[in-house]
Description:
The protein has 414 residues and is an alpha+beta fold. The chain contains 4 helices and 22 strands.
Amino acid sequence: MRKRTVIFLSVLITVLLISGAVWFISVQQKGSSIKVLQTVQVQRGSVSVQLKSTGIVQPQVGAVVKTGTRATGEIERMLVHVGDKVEKGVLIAKIDDREERAAYLIQEAALRQAQAELVNVNKTYPLQIEQAQATLNGSLAKRRYTYLTWQRRTALVATGVLEQASLDEAYQDYVVAVTQAKADKEALRLVEENYATAIINAVEAVASAQAELENANIQISYTEIYAPITGLVSQVTAQEGETVVAGLQVANLITILDPTRLEMLIYVDETDVGTVTSGMAVNFTVDAYPNVIFRGTVSQIYPEAVVQDNIVYYQALVPLSPETAIQLRPEMTTQCSIITKEIDSVLVVPNDAIKWVDGKKYIYIVDENDRATPVSPELGVMGENNTEIVSGIKEGDRVATRIIIPTTQTADDK
């Protein structure tokens, strides 16, 4: 009995040893073969090199307008609220304007008075000039008469008809008439000069009163606040019943944002800024719409650096179209891909087809029997998804994208 047990155990150990050897050989044989799981055909396509970065959406210059007032007074009406859409030129707030209107009435009265004075000057001075001219005409006529009288008496005295005293009297009358004519002529000149001065002063007074009246009207206009642009109300800093005091600075009441005028600033690392130029296409996403890809174009690179967390960045400006901007909001963070290089109509393989084996890049070409043969082709531009094939692989070849490489080798099994 004991002998049978020993024999059975010996047989069992032998069977186990044989089975183990068979299993080990089988595993070794399996490990020495390449198993192809997925393939693609080599064909022509495009390769794009993309620079990943983050950005921020912000309003363009002039897209945000802070609307205020230069008037001091109580807000009678506030006609908008945050989020309201307003059109340019629409009344959005009204301030008490009683003081301004009272000042307007005062200036209106001053203008009427100045205009009346101008009318009075144009009415009275011409009469004074007419009277002075008539007086001068009379003086000139009297001077002429006295002169002739003096001449006649001179002849009569010479013939002895009249005495010398009569001639002296005539001469004295002539001298008085000449003096009076000179005085009347000077009086006319003074009236004319006074008229010219008065008319200038009166016209200037009217112009000044008109300017003061216009200024008063402008002061009234400050009490009515109109939307300067079309957009959305983003801030309202005062409500009905509150008093605003306008000092050296305009009191801001309402902020309006034009949601169609946005732009994006991309923060490009200083090590990558040399690869980015104006005109490059940009694809980006935001967390609010993770499945939507927005597009834009780099317009310029700002020369001044921005330092964040001890890292130097340069900002690339990307204007956004109104259709894109209307879907976004200021201060949104964006995940951007700047296409720094793109080539078309070249042989490409997916990046998954490139395997690292023993520190070298290989691509496995698969034949009709699904046997994989590693090759080391000349590679060109490596893009986000594809890599350019310069030589070593032909169009139409099948290459493996997913394989199991023997464990005796080191590989990157993508």
